[in-house]
Amino acid sequence: MTKQDHILHRSWELPNTDAAAQQTCTKILKHAAEQGFNEDATFGIHLALEEAFTNALKHGNQSNPNKKICVEFLITPEKMDISITDEGQGFDPDDVPDPRCNQNLYKISGRGVLLIKAYMDIVEYNKRGNCVHMVKYRHDSRQSTPRAQNGS
Amino acid sequence: MDKTSPNMSIEFRGQVVVATLADEKILDETQLQALQGSFMPLIEQNPGIQLVVDFSNVKFLTSSVLGLLIRISKKVYETEGTLRLCSISRKILEIFKITRLDRIFEIYPDVDEAMVGLKKSQ
Fold it and tell me: What number is the ipTM of this complex?
């Protein structure tokens, strides 16, 4: 089997439902396992996907069933590359309060972006803030260890 | 008297209530609402509750579950109760550490250690 055989690119347009997000999450995790991402890395990818889908479904698309979520997915022997775009107005991730600060520790929500950044190797948002692009490297020695984020 | 609901089993050990979460993965809104619907009446009906939440069955959870745990802790502390968490897997404990919630929750390796120091008899 050639290296090319291990490259897979998929695009999905999903209805704005938990069920559609879960199905897509399951497909992506299956590809991750097949490509040899280890258990810890797959756990991190799973968590990042759940948090990103929650942000898109609830915060971006405001739980509106008429809106869509677009997912771009690329997996190669070296990395997994995922973009999740909603139809919301977007947000500035730098404006999200640090949930680790003492005054925010007892807040009910606001930890998703922190967790995505901790478990994925690259996390970036488009200018509008309605698309998160995440990369996880397979051969990165950090793949089994979530990164400590700098506190503010 | 012990109780079982689809999402957790509840065991009364004297004055200590051990709630063992049943689901391996806690992901969606339905599961969260079911858990909230089980925990809140339990806390309301047992003021000053000494509650141990056992995570031994749980292999995966999201930040929404952390939010629920904070809601539960606020409710427990309102009634001057005690909340302890135990048997949290290494990977899930990492989530608590990243979010620094390991600083606000009392976390123990297992139920027996979580019971130490709690008032067991009436």
Answer: 0.91
